[in-house]
Predict the structure of Uracil phosphoribosyltransferase.
Amino acid sequence: MSTSSVNVVAHPLVQHKLSLMREKDRSTKSFREILNEIGMLLAYEVTRDLPLELVEIETPISPMQAPKIAGKKLTLAPILRAGVGFLDGMLALMPSARIAHIGLYRDPETLQAVEYYFKAPQDLSDRTVILMDPMLATGNSACAGASLLKDRGARDIRFVCLLAAPEGIAKFQSEHPDVPVWTAAIDERLNDHGYIVPGLGDAGDRMFGTK
Ligand SMILES: O=P(O)(O)OC[C@H]1O[C@H](OP(=O)(O)OP(=O)(O)O)[C@H](O)[C@@H]1O
Ligand SMILES: O=c1cc[nH]c(=O)[nH]1
Ligand SMILES: [Mg+2]
């Protein structure tokens, strides 16, 4: 069986900004700002192969056939809470995108994803959906998010994260072999609490200042 592709975004701007985010003394304000900046850079990568169509336009000089993105508007699907950290950056490049909110939290004992909210555009079947969450640890949250989108008809899903653990990638690839992954880095492993090592800690808490 084929597995989904994993694209590590090695661009120096992404790598530099990620290193800043890993620093334990970085402020909430700075952490949030950089996550948004990286969201914008990852948006550029994840949309690289979107299909174009030629559309008749008029420049001030003459008519021409000009390329524009084909199909319906994309849907951006952040997994709450930390996924929201990518949203403004992505929206800066795709201001007309639709948004699907996926409320999931990770049970600290079982590490299973627990659903608490889901609201998406009705017609996901003919839209490209960009699922996003900075952290792919066990993979339970990303897998649940992709399944919820598929239950609502989504067929073209791409998953964007900031940091991935090998364990999370393996799980995601086995459950969603049709969903390609973009990440800024693949770290060493998970610790006994399911946190990514070396990682950056708890992304949601660092973003929202809740610890
Ligand atoms: O791959 P997993 O093992 O599922 O872990 C990753 C999930 O854990 C964190 O969310 P958390 O439950 O802390 O919620 P939060 O974003 O609201 O803080 C993170 O934002 C991911 O959603
Ligand atoms: O390292 C981790 C693992 C899960 N969630 C986080 O925010 N960080
Ligand atoms: Mg959290």
In short: The longest helix spans residues 28-46. The domain at 6-208 is CATH 3.40.50.2020 (Rossmann fold). The mean pLDDT is 97.
